[in-house]
Amino acid sequence: MILVTGGAGFIGSNFVLDWCAQHNESVINLDALTYAGNLENLATLDGNPAHVFVRGDIGDFGLVARLLAEHKPRAVINFAAESHVDRSIHGPEDFIQTNIVGTFRLLEAVRAYFGGLNETDKAAFRFLHVSTDEVYGSLAKDDPAFTETNRYEPNSPYSASKAASDHLVRAYHHTYGLPVLTTNCSNNYGPYHFPEKLIPLCIHNALAGKPLPIYGDGQQIRDWLYVKDHCSAIRRVLEAGRLGEVYNVGGWNEKANLDVVHTLCAILDELSPRADGKSYREQITFVTDRPGHDRRYAIDATKLERELGWKPAETFETGIRKTVRWYLDNQDWVKNVTSGAYRDWLGKHYGECA
Length: 354
Ligand code: NAD
Ligand code: DAU
Fold this sequence. Notes:
13 helices, Rossmann fold, alpha/beta, binds nicotinamide-adenine-dinucleotide, 354 residues
């Protein structure tokens, strides 16, 4: 059995769903169910004994220690985090608590558990930490893409907290011999993406007749990867990654934000045209830029491709079309996650543009 943390969030729930569809190995899913965690993502696993959900905090040493002792997982995969850059700018505290203190306590519980395993179980055990390309900072237009040896230069409270957690994971390998693996991935998109992030927010706002808010000049570049491809990379690193190593994960899909939103508008114009016959592009609105906004991310995933033979299955064009289709087909999911506290966030962050 494996223990997944944060498995009710966007990437974690996609990972758990894919895992249960492809493996005969059970999953314990530990998630605090913050605003970003949603058991509806996992509804298809209701009644499936291979999925055991536990509501709790990765920072709760006693709970994690109990789960490890009871279920004896052969791997821990750590997705749990506060993940939204804009929220980290409004209030960094939760990011420090979960991403740094929480990861530290999780590592402590895993270290104690690992110390008590027999030699065979020790040899098989893995702690896989899911991290981000944002720890490497921002690239200039012509800089080469980030490799695993790039310096850490985080610029937001979110990326700084993820960088700190990556350093702790590294230290637990070098100091205590914990068999760790770290993945640093680019921007994901796909089903169950919470509509505070650019792609699902713009799909949701477009259909609701609201502004599509573009920060600054919209020429910031992100490197997009379909979420299922991120999940397949994590499975491959878990299976064959070298202990203590870091693997960058990315889809070679650099796009300027404005181009991404133009693509979304074009697909929506085709699949769900506006009643007035005009393009959704009319709803694009330029708003104040994000403070400290990183200009460009780009991932060089050569190491993962060469050493472990991983390749993404989707191009941006195929993945984005599937994603728009998923949101059109799952309007109830969107309705449920955009009620209540979500509206408070929009009002606080976008003001009258919400
Ligand atoms: P998300 O915000 O959608 O989900 C995070 C999940 O973690 C939620 O289910 C939440 O309830 C849970 N959680 C939060 N605090 C917790 C705590 N203290 N204890 C237990 N559970 C807790 O995030 P995501 O986009 O799915 O990202 C998952 C991981 O992947 C994060 O570590 C993130 O840094 C990393 N990552 C994300 C992206 C991306 O594009 N979304 C890209 C690269 C890496
Ligand atoms: O690069 C990986 C990271 O990608 C992950 O580590 C983070 O968890 C994940 O949230 C994501 O971070 P970004 O800040 O890149 O994602 P977001 O969707 O918030 O923004 C994408 C780009 O779009 C970014 O340049 C900011 C811009 N943007 C975003 C929003 C929400 C807008 O222009 N308007 C918006 O309303």
